[in-house]
Amino acid sequence: MTSIVIRVRGARRWARGHPWVYRSDVLEPPSPVEAGIVRVLDPDGAPLGPALYSPVSEIRLRFLDRGEVEIDAAWWERRLRAALERRSDIGDTAFRIVHAEADGLPSLIVDRYGPYVAVQLLSAGLEAVRDDVLGAIRTAIAPAGIVLRNDVPIRAHEDLPREIETLGDVPDGVEVTMGGVRTRIDLRAGQKTGSFLDQRENHSLAGSVARGRGLDAFCYEGGFALHMAAGCEAVLAVDQSERALARVLENASLNGLDNLRTLEANAFDVLGETERGSERFDTIVLDPPAFARSRRSVPRALTGYKEINLRAMRLLTPGGSLLSFSCSYHVSRGAFEDMLADAAGDSGRRIAVVRWLGASRDHPAMLTIPESSYLKGAWLTAAE
């Protein structure tokens, strides 16, 4: 195994539990090293552990383990089985099995959808050992088929192609059950690996608090709307995607729901127009796409978040519930909470926090790896 030496700063970061070593902390070897698994040493030559090496990425190394450990097919299988065991009590038929660094499997995503799995290999180092990884997935999880959703932008930073590949026979529509709601998922065309599994538990929460008239803005394929429909008299699901709204209605029919209406429109416009009218809602969900793609875009993103939350707060009936989310990693939880407080102050309403929210527990957030935590949310109510 090739050895690579890193600076003290990188070694200290790993000692404190963060597995990434950036390009600036790597003492480049005298000759080029191909992507794959390497042995990492500190400046004194002491072994720190094996890591995935990406020769063109800003994140040069991703530690896999500590000390002198052999990373073979059996190692991958053990880590996969451990991740699956941590989720053994999840009753849904769709959930995340591997959450990359948070499960000790850097740059690897594995999501279960019924008998199938969707997989993402997000680094050049991991791509170099894909045969061992896929072999371990087949042994530890035994899926009926695998969809490689390697079509994400992050692979471009690793000089890897963006592509979707199917291994085995995987149908276009896979039916799963989450929170008692049946949903048909397209593993090749759906967002992320097919669905927003990080919101799985929040979908169920929305269903448990929903009442009266419901609004699911930025609904995509209706994860919130479908759960809300069971408790609401009527639900309006708003999105700009015609294809996504067609899937909302398909899944509503699958669950025998006839009180869900879709509207193809810009959610910002709908919220503004509705505020100027007389219609009000008892349950509102705001789950927009990421507004901040970089640190520089955070101020503008917070302006957008405040606008939709301010309008939603004014649209709530007394005693109504607002579930509001941000999936922008660059918007910190503190900034998100401050934005909500600012919106509440401008709304003229008495808004209370019932509970702060985050990703489902199959998406663990590690205290020493802040990148593993990106989804933040709040369950708010308007005073009677």
General description of the model:
By secondary structure, the chain is α/β, with parallel strands linked by helices. It folds into 3 domains: 3-63, PUA domain (Archaeosine Trna-guanine Transglycosylase, Chain: A, domain 4); 73-171, Transcription Regulator spoIIAA; 196-382, 3-Layer(aba) Sandwich (Rossmann fold). It is 28% helix and 30% strand. It has a 7-stranded mixed β-sheet with strand order 16-15-14-17-18-20-19, sandwiched between helices. Strands 2-6-5-4-1-3 form a 6-stranded mixed β-sheet. A 5-stranded mixed β-sheet has the order 7-8-9-10-11. Helix 2 (73-85) packs across helix 4 and helix 9 crosses helix 10 (333-347). The mean pLDDT is 96.
Could you give a short account of the major beta sheet? 7 strands, mixed
CATH superfamily of the largest domain: Vaccinia Virus protein VP39
Characterize the overall form. globular
Strand order of the largest sheet: 16-15-14-17-18-20-19
Number of strands: 20
Overall pLDDT level: 96
* Structural Rg: 22 Å
Features:
384 residues, alpha/beta, Archaeosine Trna-guanine Transglycosylase, Chain: A, domain 4, Transcription Regulator spoIIAA, Rossmann fold, 3 domains, six-stranded mixed beta sheet, 20 strands, 30% strand, globular
Lay out the secondary structure.
Blueprint: E1 3-6, H1 8-15, E2 20-22, E3 26-27, E4 36-41, E5 47-53, E6 59-63, H2 73-85, E7 94-99, E8 108-113, E9 116-121, H3 124-127, H4 130-141, E10 145-150, E11 163-167, E12 174-178, E13 181-185, H5 200-209, E14 213-217, H6 223-228, E15 234-239, H7 242-254, E16 260-264, H8 267-276, E17 281-286, H9 298-315, E18 316-326, H10 333-347, E19 351-358, E20 376-382
Parallel strand pairs: 1-4, 9-10, 14-15, 14-17, 15-16, 17-18
Antiparallel strand pairs: 1-3, 2-6, 4-5, 5-6, 7-8, 8-9, 10-11, 12-13, 18-20, 19-20
